[in-house]
Specification:
- The protein is of the alpha/beta class.
- The chain folds into 2 domains: about 60 residues, no CATH class; about 220 residues, Vaccinia Virus protein VP39 (Rossmann fold), CATH 3.40.50.
- A hairpin with a 2-residue loop joins strand 8 and strand 9.
- Helix 1 crosses helix 2 and helix 9 runs parallel beside helix 10.
- The longest helix has 23 residues.
- Bound molecules: S-adenosylmethionine (SAM).
- S-adenosylmethionine binds next to helix 6.
- S-adenosylmethionine (SAM) binds next to helix 6.
Length: about 300
């Protein structure tokens, strides 16, 4: 069938060419004319066949869905809660947290409960770079009334800071933000931290460490995710002179923690964090810190494994 159609169209072309030739067209000119004519007819039939009710968005390519062209309005990465209320006085920080989180009373009251006590070790501390010289240098420099620690684990760095502030005779309140879940895989890495009905005893072992260090009046905690805790502190006007960032170490966690925390920094305060130069960072922390410094026009100072940024 296909063969017959090709033969017929060749014969038709020959007939038209010879007709044009008879009318005074040279053979090449006749062929060119036919070529242009068939091109035009093909184009016309393509237009007529395309239904007008078939808008292009019914046939999106993967690229148009997954990768829309960047918009100048795509600034969400840089937008965190914009306006915190005015800072409350530092002496109200502890009571504000007790009121908002613990119904007004200290969570250390009657701690540990009898059914929890056998699950805890008298003291079980483990940290990472938690006693680096940077803590002493910054506490001596800033003399903070309020410290916010983002990422506390068993309290190694928080308790170290509590000891440093006590040695300097400062009345400092240290507010530890951590969901006290650690990370997936923690129970198999820290088998001596017990689990009760699927609940790892991280929070209670941290509290026990604080009790053991005699620091319950200095160290209070906010046992929620860093994102929601920092947003609430912004709403309640809980600001700090010194903020340590040491929670999630992937870029996005570090980026959002740093952005949210920086809004809570009092003028003259310092924000710093761990793992600028360690394997645990995998460059996520470093990229977030560097990007934040670039956006804000700040200079990153490096102190051992820690990064340090002064407030503007
Ligand atoms: C590296 S440890 C903190 C160590 C501590 N600064 C020290 O040196 O002793 C990180 C902690 O961050 C907490 N964390 C990680 N991501 C978090 C999140 N999104 N919200 C709350 N806590 C988080 C984990 O539960 C863990 O205890």
């Amino acid at each position: 069938m296909k063969h017959i159609m090709i033969t017929e169209s060749a014969a038709a072309t020959r007939r038209i060419t010879s007709a044009l030739h008879n009318r005074g067209f040279t053979k090449p000119a006749a062929y060119l004319l036919i070529l242009l004519l068939s091109y035009y007819l093909g184009y016309l039939s393509a237009i007529l066949k395309t239904p007008s009710y078939d808008p292009p968005y019914n046939h999106p390519t993967t690229a148009t869905i997954v990768n829309p062209p960047p918009q100048t309005t795509d600034v969400d990465h840089y937008q965190f809660q914009t306006h915190c209320v005015d800072p409350i006085p530092p002496q109200l920080v502890r009571q504000t947290i007790l009121n908002q989180i613990f119904n007004g009373s200290s969570p250390y009251n009657d701690f540990p409960q009898p059914h929890i006590k056998p699950l805890l070790r008298r003291k079980r501390i483990k940290g990472w770079g938690s006693t680096g010289l940077v803590f002493k240098k910054l506490i001596e420099k800033v003399k903070p009334k309020t410290i916010i620690e983002i990422g506390t684990f068993l309290g190694a760095s928080a308790i170290h800071m509590a000891e440093l502030t006590q040695q300097l005779g400062l009345q400092t309140q240290i507010l530890c933000i951590d969901d006290f879940r650690g990370w997936p895989g923690l129970p198999s890495q820290f088998r001596d931290i017990k689990m009760l009905n699927g609940n790892i005893m991280l929070l209670y072992q941290f509290m026990q460490n604080v009790v053991q260090a005699n620091a319950t009046e200095t160290v209070i905690f906010f046992p929620f995710s860093t994102g929601s805790a920092l947003e609430k502190l912004c709403e309640w006007g809980v600001f700090a002179d010194l903020i340590e960032v040491d929670a999630g170490h992937d870029f996005h966690s570090a980026w959002s923690d740093i952005n949210r925390a920086y809004k809570l920094l009092r003028p003259g305060g310092v924000i710093f964090g761990h793992d600028y130069f360690t394997g645990a960072d995998s460059r996520g922390v470093r990229r977030a810190v560097n990007m934040f410094a670039r956006v804000k026009g700040l200079r990153v100072k490096v102190d051992g494994q820690h990064w340090v940024l002064d407030s503007l």
